[in-house]
Amino acid sequence: MSCYPSPNVSPVTKVVPDFAFAFDIDGVLLKGGEVIPEAVEALKVLNGKNQFGIDIPYIFVTNGGGKTEAERCQDLSKQLETVVSPDQFICGHSPMREMADVYGTVLVVGGEGEKCRDVAKTYGFKNIVTPGDLMKSNPAVTPFRKLKDSEHNSCKELDLEELEIEAIFVFADSRHWGDDAQIILELLMSKNGRMGTVSETFEEGPPIYWSHNDVVWATNYELNRYGMGAFRVFVESMYKHQTGKDLKTSTAFGKPQIGTYQFATRVLEQWRESRFGAKGAPKTVYFVGDTYEIDIKGTNEYHETVDEEWYSILVETGVYAPGSVPAHEPRQIAKNVLDAVLHGIKRSHVGETGSLAKDLVL
Ligand code: G3P
Ligand code: MG
């Protein structure tokens, strides 16, 4: 269950629709950090600016990360011009909080500066080490990069002889692939996560967890850019190149993993109850995404496993190239997120006859 604090708000409406929305963020609501114009209007429509005057529940399910959920929601609230609560927000690394008690000393990789160290702290990880700490402790670890003064100050010096990394968590996209890969590969091939050692079997190193597996993602550049999934391919290929073995202890969270959708269902149910006073799961969840290998695949597969309807909508504002044939077929293709929202409302609330559906929960 979500362990985020409840928002200090009372339920907004007495009429709760039996449908809801779940939004991917990059390529749907934002691109390169900028708001996709139709996104603000789409959320206004869900927040009651529709011909029926109803508020429609929605949550956000992004593979992105690198900040605490609370910080990210503050940013999103400004960008999307509506209050976004951590109670309606899931990012790629959110499920990692459930592993904080499993490991003692962990290497936390990715994100801007040392921000992911803070995220890991809020999740309850006890002994957090970053690549910066290792570089500060022995600068020869990464021959082509020296820490800047500001980085040096925010990192800690460790006794590497004593250090034993029990697991590696890639919280967000690596900003320094070469240096991070150097360190990750050393540890994967090490004896029990000790720097400067080499295992004879190459199978004694710590497991590695990725917050998602997106090979590409949509930014404000005209072509898609490589993401964490591409970095994972690089690390795993190098491991195989060096050892002749497949890396068996590599696990990805995020979409399209079914666990992420199960987690999203719990968050949505709690959100409907705390914010809208409605119990249980909605009849239909419209999932709006831009990547068919991730968002559409995950939604379609999850739909097959649950009683509720999870209805996939692919938008044309992100990774998906309009006109091409998606390898995972969405239930609907929409030009943008506003069209996706209007499609869902029309389908669930108006019905084919154009009259209001009679199945609203009062
Ligand atoms: O790094 C984030 C990106 O890979 C995808 O984010 O919001 O499209 O799931 P999102
Ligand atoms: Mg996306």
Automatic annotation (TrEMBL):
SUPFAM superfamilies: HAD-like. GO terms for cellular component: mitochondrion. It comes from the Eukaryota. Keywords: Hydrolase. GO terms for biological process: glycerophospholipid biosynthetic process. One of its GO terms (molecular function) is hydrolase activity. Pfam families: Hydrolase_6, Hydrolase_like. This is HAD-superfamily hydrolase.
